[in-house]
Specification:
GO biological process, one term: transmembrane transport
Strand content: 5-15%
CATH superfamily of the domain at 160-248: TonB
Biased composition (Pro residues): 72-106, 140-154
CATH topology of the domain at 160-248: TolA/TonB C-terminal domain
Domain TonB C-terminal: 161-252
Number of strands: 6
CATH class of the domain at 160-248: Alpha Beta
Oligomer: single chain
Structural class: alpha+beta
Shape: flat
GO molecular function: energy transducer activity
Distance between the termini: 134 Å
Order of helices and strands: HEHEEHEEE
Largest sheet: 3 strands, antiparallel
Keywords: Cell inner membrane, Cell membrane, Membrane, Protein transport, Transmembrane, Transmembrane helix, Transport
Radius of gyration: 75 Å
Amino acid sequence: MGNCNVAPSSLVVQQHSDNAPRTWPHAALAIALAIGLHAALAAWLMADHPQAPEPTPPMPMPMPITVQWMPPPVAPPVAQPTPPEPTPQPAPEPPAPAPKPAPPEPKPAELPKPKAQPRTATSKPVAKPVAPAPSVAAPTPAPAAAPAPRPAPAAPQTTTAPIGRAGYLNNPPPVYPPAAARRHQEGTTMLRVHVLPNGRTDQVQVLQSSGVPALDEAAQAAVRQWTFIPAKRGDTPVEGWVNVPMAFKLAP
């Protein structure tokens, strides 16, 4: 029984293996035909119904330029000259009335003639006594004017020297030369300054050197920028000279 069951299965397998090579060409041919038909159909559709072109995006419109029509200016109407007004005719003057006859003048009444009177002797006028003229007294001489007092002698005006170190003048101090500071150079420079009436410096001279030219030059450069209280003669500002000592010392 076991052998009979095995034999049919082997035949079936053998049969499938024998038919496989015979059916493969037919299947491949069918597939190729199907692909060809689909390609032909697609070509026909493309030929009869061309693909619609893609819509192009709308171009942006530029901003419109507004143009306004202006009517031409209307010429003003020409003013017609007004006719001159007729001058009024003067009214005719009424005729002058006829002069009335003057009334007759009345005759003056006759006056009786005066009777002549006898003349009387005329008396001469009596001369009145003339009063004597009053005697005019001689004018008394005016008293002599007292001599004017002599003016007191003017007080001598004091002269003050210029001042340059007042607290409110804000004069900057000189700059210590860096080269002299590195060399530890110190000293005092005495300057003689000519101050004008407006307080500005005119001349700055070295009266006594510090021994270091750099220190002397720094002192002169600073004082040339200073403002002084000018010298005064009384209350009048005048030019003057002042000595300004300038000490250069390094901090310990």
